[in-house]
Automatic annotation (TrEMBL):
It comes from Pseudoalteromonas distincta. Keywords: Glycosyltransferase, Transferase. Residues 13-104 form the Glycosyltransferase 2-like domain. PANTHER family: GALACTOFURANOSYLTRANSFERASE GLFT2, RHAMNOSYLTRANSFERASE WBBL. CDD domains: GT2_RfbF_like. Belongs to the glycosyltransferase 2 family. InterPro entries: Glyco_trans_2-like, Nucleotide-diphossugar_trans. It comes from the Bacteria. This is Glycosyltransferase family 2 protein.
Amino acid sequence: MIGAVLVVYKPDLPLVERLLTRLYGQTEEVVIVDNSPTPHDFSKIITHYHYIHLSSNSGIASAHNAGLIYLLEAGCEYAILLDQDSLIPSDMVFNLSSLLKASNKMKQNVVAIGPRIRCSFSDKKVNPKVQKEVFEYDELVGVTQIIASGMMIDLSALDEIGLKDESLFIDGVDHEWCWRARSMGFDIAKAKNIEMIHRLGDSRSKFVGITYKVGAPIRLYYQFRNILLLSRRAYVPNYWKVRCLFFMPIRFFLNSVMQKNRRKRFGFMLKGIYDGLIGRKGPYDKHWK
């Protein structure tokens, strides 16, 4: 049995409807985890679903974990994680689960598999410039990490790997789980021929001909803090540590000089760096009022 976990925050209902229309009939269970302050009713979009309202917004990791625990208790073998910024093919769940089941029969240790991503901003496939493919087998390519949306997980492995790291709150949560799984001998893979459209970031900006992602100011706090937190962990890939730490001053400059809300962004980045250096974890509101 396969279940889906859809995490929303102050949901854009047309986007949610578009996704759930594509998801309809692909899974036996659908869990909608809502991190919004006020609850939402999705019964006009979907009739059979389980709703979890986390009004305090305890983060994406906490929302994923709540959904995954529900699916485990419901008897699901696999779970697919989604967010409202994704548009999935009408056969994606079946195709991903088929590949995951086939890999297990072939005694491959693949614990999570995701589609190739096409960015909705550029309408281009997202091809990592630094991340190298670990292995290639028929329709699968082994990678070091995949994003959360579109990630299908073999739930039987959670006993050994564990759930998502709630102390990170949001940024880096999906990658950290993949790296942790790989450090325990599991494999993470992408499907060569399955594609999903996904929005990465809120908008795009250019500087000296280079296009970069722009997100909400508060996200800068988590991005800068979590880079410093994750860089201390031995199982996190060195290429990621070097790249993120190298580009941190550049990102600091771009967000404090080249964007709107410069003062606000500057403050969030400084707080993120401070908390990352002293090892503070969890939600921003826990440490800053």
